[in-house]
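Lesson 9: reading folded outputs for more than one chain in a single document. The general rule is that every protein is listed as its sequence immediately followed by its structure tokens, and records are never interleaved. Here is the first one.
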Amino acid sequence: MSLSDVWPLANLRVRLGEHLQLEVPDESALAELAGAAERIYTGPDPFSGQWADGTPQERAERVVLYNWKRRAEWTSSSWCLLFAVRYEGIVVGCQDLAADDFAVTREVRTASWLSLRHHGRGIGTAMRIAVLAFAFEHVNALSATSGAYIDNPASLRVSAKVGYREDGVNVVARRGERVVERRFRMDRADWPIRGSEVVVEGLDGCRDWFGAGVTS
């Protein structure tokens, strides 16, 4: 028996073009992801929120433990798919896709982070396109939501670029200070990038893990 026999998500891959791949990380890729998290920026304009606080070692540990935690908590009605983002063969960040009661709501939410040294290369946009194509075109999502702090202009630009519409704000506490988070929403009917070069592998073996009714 192999790991994929009991955890078929291990085989899931989403590719966009020749350079970008989203993969459910094995232990080796998870170690690479932890290394990328060491290089998250935590200066006065903190794009990543409180999870990125602490020393590089603490951030790396936090990424590994969070991945293990979300795998252990997975159910078909409440799940969080944590993709390692590999660009030109190197793990550069993480792209999340999550849902609650997906069989009923058909709504997903996305979140992501990207190692600082890889900013400004279009990778953030590409990884969002890849995960939205997976959601809308392969697991039958009807809507997707996202959010970003107002002092995270890079994430705000990505959401606007790929076609989300603004959906209000949340006021939250971050590091003991008041901060505004903008919400974004997109419906499948508004998904503007149909027919993209997204190729999905390994989904047939794990469709039931996303909730009843996920179709090809």
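And here is the second record, again sequence then tokens.
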Amino acid sequence: SVVAGQAANAFACRSTRRPAWELGWFSNRFLLTAIAIGVGFALSLFIFPAAADLLDQQWPPAGAWIVVLASPPAVILVDAIWKRWVSRRH
């Protein structure tokens, strides 16, 4: 959930005034590469038994995936609301 939320935060932080969806999701290939590496690394900690055992990790239960999948839209939405609120105050 933290990795997914931070990936969304990376998209949200590309502008101080515009919401993430106005900037184009695929316009920054370096950001996409960084996010793919981060998500891949996080998943590898569960997929590879040696890493999972070393860190005492196990595959998250199905219910946890709801939180993981809800994190990015929540971050993007809260960021957009904040940017709109700040722009109306000035």
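What the second record shows: The helical segments are 2-12, 29-47, 49-54, 62-89.
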